[in-house]
Amino acid sequence: MGTSPLFTIPIPSSRDTVPTGYGFVMPDQNGWSRYLHFQTAWALVLTGLVYGLAGLWTGHFWKDLVPERRDRKWRAYWGRMAQYLRRAPPEASSYNVLQRTAYLGVIFVLFPLVIWTGLALSPAFDSAVPAAVNLLGGRQSARTLHFFVSGALVLFLLVHVAMVALSGFRNRMRGMISGRMVNPEAAVSEEERP
Amino acid sequence: MTKAISRRKLITTGFAAAAGVSGLAATGLTMRRYGLIPPDHCGVYGPGETLTYAAQRLLTRHSLAREFPRSMISKRPFANEVAPPSDAFKRLHANRFADWRLAVDGMVARPLSVSLSDLRALPFRSQITEVACEEGWSYIAEWIGTPLGEVLNEAGLLPQARYLVYFSIDRNWWESIDLADALHPQTLLTWGMNDGDLPVPFGGPLRLRVPRQLGYKSVKYIVRLTATDSLKGFGKGLGSASPEAGYAWYAGI
Prior knowledge:
- The structure holds two protein chains of two kinds.
- By secondary structure, chain A is an all-alpha fold.
- Chain A has helices at residues 30-58, 60-65, 74-85, 97-119, 123-128, 131-134, 139-166, 169-178, 184-192.
- Chain A is globular and about 55 Å long.
- In chain B, 28% of the residues lie in helices and 23% in strands.
- The longest helix of chain B has 27 residues, at 7-33.
- The chains are: A mainly alpha, B alpha+beta.
């Protein structure tokens, strides 16, 4: 407080004590939204623990997410991007190198970061683990990082859901829930049937 | 064709369910016994709130809030002034708070009514800590005050007490904390700020600073402390005015 901000973002605040520069104040819904935020944070941490342990146990991360040996070079990334740009038909295989890298980034970078920067905003947690906030440069830096990392996660979610919808929504959902997928070509023709 | 459920399966499932239910019940009882259940544990958001409070109590019972060097004190701290004080407050203010009294009652051996100078005669502590508001802003200031634990010692806190309820001169503004925070060395009945008296906009003459929780637990204009073993009899029984307004009782996050 008392330090001018490095930048401002045009989103409304819910209190007139939080300066936005243009005076629009949203109806105050902070109470229940904070309860919801922290409850979903627990859901994230607990399911994340199960997912992480299961991924290590079953070798899912090594088998399906770490880029295949032949793809561990920049040319593989460029080649895959070029393939997308040419709109070449996808081959039915496991995740490609761009998907694998994006998933690894989300699972091992963005999620741990969003949890860390969030914990750094807890005054009680910081009293037990001061490094949590000190390494981020203090409370306000931690808040900014928390905001940007959650923004990156939302961006991933939007692209991810859009791609699921575009590549045969029902088949993908069936795959996610039951673990079984129909051959992508067959699925496309199935959905195109009138 | 569905297969009929075998007797063995039925029995094992039954045992598993019974074990699960009694395990949950035992966990609940143990958590209650060790004070890990917050007063606002009911409702949709109860599970998250209970997990947070229990985790913090197991992890942070004795930890100290970070204290900063003098050079990091905020140049322009934000007072977040509340509604104009009442006439009673103005009369006390005109007399430079000479008649301000702090009552200590409830589960104490010797109920007290002390003036600000009585309070200042007790051992005091000065610390440079951060105030963090639920709205997002924060500032660092030096706070000088009498540890709440000293006052509770004077009054002789009874062993069955588990919570401390504290009231502002504004009747609708009250909060409560558990004994881990009430007896914490950094929880101060604050009367000084940055080498001077605590200014009225910052809660002067007397504010309870709870530096390990968000700013809304640091109630301004304190006139009464009540020790209790249960928060059921206060307001709607949710622990303080905050959960009645929809905010978490435990604000250590």
